[in-house]
Amino acid sequence: MFGRASSLALAVLLCTAPSFSSAQPQRVVSINMCTDQLLLAVADESQIASLTQLSADLEETHAGERTRRLAQAGLPLNNGLAAEILLLNPDLVLAGAFSARPAATLLRGQGFQVVDLPFAQSLDDVRSNLLETARLVGQEERGATLEADLGQALEAFAEQRLDHDPPKVGVLMSGLYTHGAGTLLDDIVKTAGLDNKAADWGISGIGKVSLEHLVSDPADAYVFGVDPGANASIQASILEHPAVIALSQPRPHITIVSEYWICGSPQIMEAVRRFGTFADELRGDGGTRR
Fold it and tell me: Is beta strand 177-179 parallel, antiparallel or unpaired with respect to 206-208?
């Protein structure tokens, strides 16, 4: 609940249209975990007025570490609610295409500059979003450098792993969901020198694999996008189903948690490297155990 002072401040902001200048924005708020990562990559920390609580909850990635550090230094974290964003009086709000839609709509209606960045469905999309975010925050040179470095790294990585008969890998998420053609994960898997088993399972986009498909048409190897032993959710527990264990245990398998690749940001290169290392192991000593 907001206190009386907060309510009064909110009322004032609702009655006062924000003013913008063509100068570099200095109070940038992100209300989406993926735009958090893009903002952290290209903006000066002094330009960031708020990031999401979701990013602070990331346990393994550099984005999570930076968000927690900034929060400890006093940066407000938000839950994508319009009321908390209005009190920050941002000069730019970065939103995702699907999350915090009520907040984005209300903020736009109050005259705030809200930009929806599209969800990355390929590695090229990652590069485009990086450049666009850099343009929005007035850091074009930094963005161009990061985009060029990422592009060169991806191209060099792909060239080293050309294979006419790549291993078919099944990537399994909580609830037995996987990502097929037209997704960022599919592009990562192929760039790393692997083939995505999702196509054989009849899945494009994001879809759920049936246990029947897993049993009747197993992959050569498996990547788990969540560690079921460290995740107590019912959705994650399906990865410990006897049928899944029976399929994966005799075959090479590894865990690469989804926070490395669920968002299209420069840290995506770490996901490519991890998938690539697994591909190298599959061609060499037969894989690794999670």
Answer: antiparallel
| pTM for this predicted structure | 0.85
For residue 126, count CB atoms less than 10 angstroms from its CB and return exposed for 0-12, middle for 13-18, buried for 19 or more. Answer: buried
- Tell how many helices (H) and how many strands (E) occur in the chain: 13, 11
Closest CA to 41 of 55, 20, 22, 21: 55
Q: What is the mean pLDDT of the chain?
A: 86
In contact, 188 and 153? CB cutoff 8 Å? no
Q: Burial, 106: exposed, middle or buried (Cβ in 10 Å; 0-12, 13-18, 19+)?
A: middle
Give the C-alpha distances (Å, rounded to integers) separating 68 from 32, 176, 227, 272: 16, 31, 22, 25
| C-alpha–C-alpha distance, residues 147 and 56, integer Å | 25
Closest CA to 57 of 68, 73, 49: 68
Where helices occur in the chain by DSSP H, the ranges are 4-15, 33-42, 53-56, 62-72, 82-86, 101-109, 123-136, 140-160, 184-191, 211-216, 234-237, 242-248, 268-283
**What distance in Å separates the CA atoms of residue 80 and residue 19, rounded to the nearest whole number?**
22
Q: Which amino acid is at 178?
A: T
- The string of pLDDT tens digits covering residues 42-54 is 999 999 999 999 9
**Of residues 277, 189, 176, 178, the one with CA closest to residue 228:** 176
| Closest of 246, 255, 272, 266 to residue 62, by C-alpha | 266
Coil, strand or helix: which one is 32?
A: coil
